[in-house]
Amino acid sequence: MNDYRSLQIVYKINGLSIESCQTLKTPRESLVISVIYLIGRTTTLFNMKQCAKCSQILDLSRFSKQKRRKDGLSNQCKGCFSDYFKANREKYKKRYNEWRANNLEKARELERKNFQNPTRKHKHRINQAFRRVMQQHATFKGFEAEIRKIYDNCPEGYHVDHIMPLRGKNMCGLNVPWNLQYLPALENIRKNNKVILKKDEES
């Protein structure tokens, strides 16, 4: 058992020891803070970094990769960048559209590479399906976020299916959370606009 009375904490910045990470008075780029916990013979290392926006010292996994930075990581944490992106969504959209118009071939090549990635391909298909359903079928207000979450959590190889089809032969279902389920892709294609009742529902 570790003797926590022998706990030592060593702080390092870019591999150099310092007395305490509190010496970081202002946020700086490319500073990786190593916090080493020495408990008896056990050594635990945490590599951390200070966010230039919120000033929090966070684990490196909380920062996105950015090749042009010296340490290969963004100077803002994912949370701060996400908040900034949401507040400036139209600005980013306009900037990307302008770049794409001026670099069409490069943009298409990047899109092709992204689409070859199975995870990105699945996410793209889910986004397309969600937009199509939301645009073509009326949705009760207040359920959009819950429906979006169901689509986002759809496992790879599955489709989001409407239990009662939106355009059935004899009846039409609603685009609401409790009318959604996950079905294997092939099973959902075979189902099409049919209503499939479970055995306990048939009796």
Description of the molecule:
This protein is an alpha+beta fold and 203 residues long. It has 2 domains: 4-75, no CATH class; 91-202, no CATH class. 37% of the residues lie in helices and 23% in strands. The protein has 7 helices and 9 strands. It has helices spanning 78-87, 89-102, 104-116, 118-136, 144-152, 185-191, 199-202, and strands at 8-13, 16-18, 32-39, 42-50, 57-59, 63-65, 73-77, 158-162, 180-184. The strands form 3 sheets. Strands 2-1-3-4-5 form a 5-stranded antiparallel beta sheet, with no helix packed on it. A two-stranded antiparallel ribbon has the order 6-7. A hairpin with a 2-residue loop joins strand 1 and strand 2 (16-18). Mean pLDDT is 73; it is low at 1-11, 18-30 and 199-203.
